[in-house]
Design a protein that fits this description.
The complex is a heterotrimer of chains A (298), B (271) and C (425).
Chain A: H1 3-36, E1 39-40, E2 49-50, H2 54-60, H3 63-96, H4 101-113, H5 116-126, H6 133-140, H7 155-180, H8 184-192, H9 197-208, H10 210-222, H11 233-238, H12 253-262, H13 267-297
Antiparallel strand pairs in A: 1-2
Chain B: H1 3-32, H2 36-39, H3 52-60, H4 63-94, H5 100-109, H6 115-129, H7 135-139, H8 146-156, H9 161-169, H10 174-185, H11 187-202, H12 206-211, H13 220-224, E1 228-229, E2 232-233, H14 235-267
Antiparallel strand pairs in B: 1-2
Helix pairs in contact in B: 1-14, 3-14, 4-8, 4-11, 5-8, 8-11, 9-10, 11-14
Chain C: H1 2-25, E1 28-35, H2 38-54, E2 58-65, H3 70-77, E3 86-90, H4 94-99, H5 113-119, E4 128-129, E5 132-133, E6 136-141, E7 143-148, H6 149-154, H7 164-174, E8 176-178, E9 181-187, H8 191-206, H9 224-238, H10 255-261, E10 265-271, H11 275-281, E11 286-289, E12 302-303, E13 305-311, H12 317-330, H13 333-342, E14 346-347, H14 356-359, H15 364-370, E15 374-375, H16 382-397, H17 403-423
Parallel strand pairs in C: 1-2, 1-3, 9-10, 12-15
Antiparallel strand pairs in C: 3-13, 4-5, 6-13, 6-14, 7-10, 7-11, 8-9
Helix pairs in contact in C: 2-13, 8-9, 8-16, 9-16, 16-17
The chains are: A mainly alpha (298), B mainly alpha (271), C alpha/beta (425).
Amino acid sequence: MSLARRRALWAYTFILVPLAIFFFFRIVPMFQAFYLAFTRWHADPAQRAFVGFANFQRLLTDTRFLQAVRNMGFYLLIAVPGQVILGLGLALLLQAIRRGRGFFRAVYFLPYITPAVAISWAWSFMLSPHLGVINAIFRRLGLPPQPFLTSPSQALPTVATIVIWQFVGFHMVLFLVALANIPRELYEAARIDGAGSFGMFRYVTLPLINPTLVLSLVLATGSPTIGILQLFTQVLNLRFYDPGGPIGSTATVVLYMYQAGFKQFDLGYAAAVAVLLFLAIVAITFVQYRLTARRIEG
Amino acid sequence: MTRKATRTFLYLPLLLGAVVMVFPFVWMVLTSLKPLPEIYTLSWWPQNPTLANYRTILQLHPFGRWFLNSLLVAFLTTLSMVLLSSITGYTLAKLSFPGKTAVFVLILATMFIPTELLVIPWYAMAVSYGWVDTYWGILFPGLIHAFGVFLMRQFFFSVPDELLDAGRVDGLSEFGVFARVALPLMKPALGALAILNFVGNWNAFLWPLIVTSRRELFTLPVGLALFSGEAGVQWNLITAGATLTVLPTVVVFLLFQRAILESIATSGLKG
Amino acid sequence: MRSTLGRKVVGVLLGMVVAVGVFAVEPVTIVYWQYEFATKVAAINELIRMFEAENPGIRVIHETFPYAAFAEKVAAAVPAGVGPHIVNLYYGWLPAWQRAGYLQPLPEEWFPTEEIEAEFAPLIAAAKMDGRYWGLPTAVRTLALFYNIDLFEQYGIQGPPETWEEFLEVARKLTVWRDGMLVRAGFGMAPDGQDHHLVREVLIRQFGGVPYSKDYRYVLYASPEGTRALQFYADMALVHRIGEPDFPFPGVAGYYREGFNAGLIAMIIDGSFALGTIQRGARFRWGVAELPRLTPEGERHNFASFWMHALTPRAKGAELEAAAKFLQFITSERAMELWLREVGELPARLSLLDRPELLADPIYGPFMRALPYSHATFFVDEARQRQIMIDAILRVIRGGVPAAEALAIAAAEEQAVLDAFWGGR
């Protein structure tokens, strides 16, 4: 047996169990969920009629769905770069300081582990246009008070900011690991070559943390827990009785899917939303991957 | 500016950010210490701090049991996730075999479908195999997740191939190379994965709720949700319960973060 | 040897007899699901005890889940052939659940339609589809005005407002603005609370309009009367400045109710289901009054709603019979009296609705008196239709859209929802 074949055999052995788990618990259910998109939902599986692309056709003319899609564009533009850049910035800052590193790490990680309901109440309280502490500070600084979550034009940027606040600690941890993996000698070598701190960042740090940058970017875009394209829990809770409001200005695609599935009990339609979302995330991830990862992994 | 002054200057944004970060958390803890009438006064500090809310939830519900359930589920899924993700991530990053790209794409793809929709097929599966109302039923979707595979794969890229080859020259088997050479270098990444995954499973709500009906099998977030309903929310109990829920994750993080996140930086990655 | 064998045979035979005996009295087990709400859970538990004592052959398992994910739980369980035989649901969810095959109609043999219509309050017609009833409530709810008596007295205001004009006047007196910030609202505006019902079924009708055709298949509120009603509501914020939507902050279930409890709001319009939260939370004297009307002799209107008990397809054969029996029991007069006592919700049977001591009760009275003039909107898609009206209100208040245009947008969207539903049947 050739070396390559033996190694390939090892590889298959290694991934046999994980792949089986993926297959049965993730991939099969995923296709089952996709299949629902082509049916009219019924509690009795025998009565689920195949309807072809009817659910998708309905989506294309559904103004509320299209509004949610538009919103996703704005969320992506604000919250993905926001999370990744701030996460990296924080990690670099924490690398640079000596005292209190552990303290700050814990503090910046706190929002990520605090339950969403508590966070939502606290933020909407602080952001209250009339009684909130944020507007009190604004007025102290001579700035005009803002409506925040109650305004159709400000609500989305406000939610995006809260999301950045909540997940920045997650990215910080990823980048801390990446930075910890960079050998010290490389910096020494760069310093001897006369590189300044920016030069070291540009030519040592950045290339070496590139895989993490890709990871961070892809997770911030599409992952179930922190991915912007699957943004849901925050939106559901920040305006408790009018999630996605005011006037649909903060609605997300997963919120829409959830409402179609579990308020309208139309899981076929919800599945159609999920299929489109899935395709969108795959496409965006592919582009991100091409743009950022190619040079490194070759 | 001297280096020391620069360093001191760095604390300014960090401290400012820290205040913003802890704000809701502190608010949550303070609220949990207020007796009910004070909840509605919207003042920050509890005038008559009390532990009554904690007593109430501990007496009202099998909170201890829920706590243990959450711990068990989070621990077991984290263990399985860390083990399986690291070997899969390593294989995808460092070994070549036919179909590698297809396997990676397939695994990654599973990350992009919202859990909210997967619960329907999962539940049908759980019913047909008799997993409803069992720990296994709560566990099985969390055994491995594309996020972990992806994370470990990215971090394994940073391990130089020469190091692995050296191991092979020394007569290690492929598994030995993985377990003795590559894995020990991944301590920070494994730690990060463990922390992130523990938090995720500790806070999991929708699936544990769907698959359990018996109170004794509820996890903390499911139990906590019992305090909010159509006509309002019992904030004193919610915040007390939430505080009890958060504390273990804070403790886990504080205990492990130094060991996990700083272990390599001092010794440096030889390569 | 032989004797032990003989003993064994006898033992096996005995065992079989016992097993058969046990099998014969093996009770039928049925499952009842509702969302977690302490007083409702306690009331159902008590009803189950009474029911099981009277029906030794039936065992009822009562399971409750967080409100936040109750629908998901049902959505997953019923298609898998497990879950409840009897489920408690908001009446507005009926069309969606029924269409998706989650419910079966009440069997005519135990629930004759004429009997239901003769004995229950007429608004439960909202539980009727395709000529059949799909569930019955134990209790019904209406809206009323809650007001802070301490504040009223402090400002020398005598009693609750009778007309909308008085209401505005009182609210203006009680509203406090400081440096452009609302410190106390005279009225807790909540389009996403109960106010979308207020506009839809109360104000539009009081201003002389009709929100829908009688069968609720056609939207009729995009009319001059509807426009005046919506404008009247929006002007509370825009002109009279007695409150604002989302005040004090929107990230809380029942934010306006919490604001009322905190003394930040002087009056709110809320359902009878809010009584418990206000009783627990308010640290002042408060009162309940019937909703205001346009003139002292003007028309009264109100919105009524209910949670109903319904049968799922899981109930078949002996289980169906047992489930039907249980459903009859929890919608009986006895159950309703217990419910009123323990949960504080109004009975759904006519025979209990004209009791003078209830009608005169300072707290239950206003809700009870509203029942005869209440409308239970027939929603085909409650979540969407609710959202449409909320958006119409906020478009006027927050988006600067004229009331007529906001209603036209809403009417077009809601009619499309109705058409899709009725057209697809």
